[in-house]
Amino acid sequence: MPVPPPxxxxxxxxxxxxxxxxxxRAGAPVYALGAGDDPVRASRHCREFADVGAxxxxxxxxxxxxxxxxxxxxxxxxxxxxxxxLVANRRxxxxxxxxxxxxxxxxxxxxxxxxxxxxELSRQAGVPTPRTATVRTPADAESVAAEFxxxxxxxxxxxxxxxxxxxxxxxxxLVNERAELEPALEATLALGVEMLVTEIIxxxxxxxxxxxxxxxxxxxxxxxxxxxxLRQWPPHFGLATYHRTVWDPRVAELxxxxxxxxGLRGLGNVEFKLxxxxxxxxxxxxxxxxxxxxxxxxxAGIDMxxxxxxxxxxxxxxxxxxxxxxxxxxxxxxxxxxxxxxxxEGEMTVRGWLLSxxxxxxxxxxxxxDPGPTLMSLxxxxxxxxxxxxxxxxxxxxxx
Length: 400
Hints:
Elements: E1 7-10, H1 14-25, E2 30-34, E3 48-51, H2 58-68, E4 74-78, H3 81-96, E5 99-101, H4 106-112, H5 115-124, E6 132-135, H6 138-144, E7 152-156, H7 159-166, E8 173-175, H8 178-189, E9 195-199, E10 208-215, E11 221-233, E12 239-246, H9 249-262, E13 266-275, E14 280-287, H10 294-299, H11 304-313, E15 328-330, H12 332-344, H13 350-356, H14 372-399
Parallel strand pairs: 1-2, 1-4, 2-3, 4-5
Antiparallel strand pairs: 6-9, 7-8, 7-9, 10-11, 10-13, 11-12, 12-15, 13-14
Helix pairs in contact: 1-11, 2-3, 3-4
């Protein structure tokens, strides 16, 4: 049997681990590009790992590796927005080099990397959208300051550019009162990051719901799947620490309307939050790639990485017959941190937290046949915790 074409994964940390395992088991040689501490480098399913770093300029470093050290064939699969940026802007070059980038309309792809454009297209598609205003200068902030209720949020137009400065877990800057808006904006503008002022949809962190699908070249969906976020860390504006698959017809209808309205092709995920003020789901963001829930979705019966790979290299896709609801994924360390913060805010008790875990659990990295990523991740977190303790001890001694 001929060896299937390679799969080249761009960034993604734990996302890349799930994708590497799926694609390797399907026979594809897996190459992964990322930062030196990405757990995928420790996976037995990764044939070769290239440490190209992260942050500013990483898309150019991806391209440099693909040009000079890559296999010159195979599917290019972004697991992070920097990889999406490369595909959207350099698809002809990638094809010229012999690669097959994931299926997408690159104009739509670029729009989904820009929150301002995402919300603009959402309104055009008739999908409920939060109130937002783009701010590029302190004068812009002053002109819109009176139009929003507080607290509100400053959200980056390009999340990956913001993450390069603030880290992947910080999604917004919270603005509690009008006087805080201009200083917060000046700090981001100094970094060259454009921001949106957006209203904050009220309600708990268990009011976030997502829709996943893959639209083929004719705009026909290959599958439908919904996900319910139960907790996140940091609370209110963080990443999921506990979530499950569900079926919500309204979320699916709005998600499908959004994808069809913007002309999306390929893989897409759109997140909503249920607004208690009018009982409607409001769009939060769209990810035009594999997401942190990739392993959860795979456990539920939809292997998004394999679908994207087979579509990119021209292999037939296996028919999909649905997905399993009630499949849960738990991030124990981050969820313990979330519990601590929820308790401080009076939103959760230890008993309520424990009761919520009385279900069969899946974990984002844990695999007994591929323990490397889990061990590497735990090692990194342990060393980070030790450094934090040492730092706090040093500060305490200095204070005395």
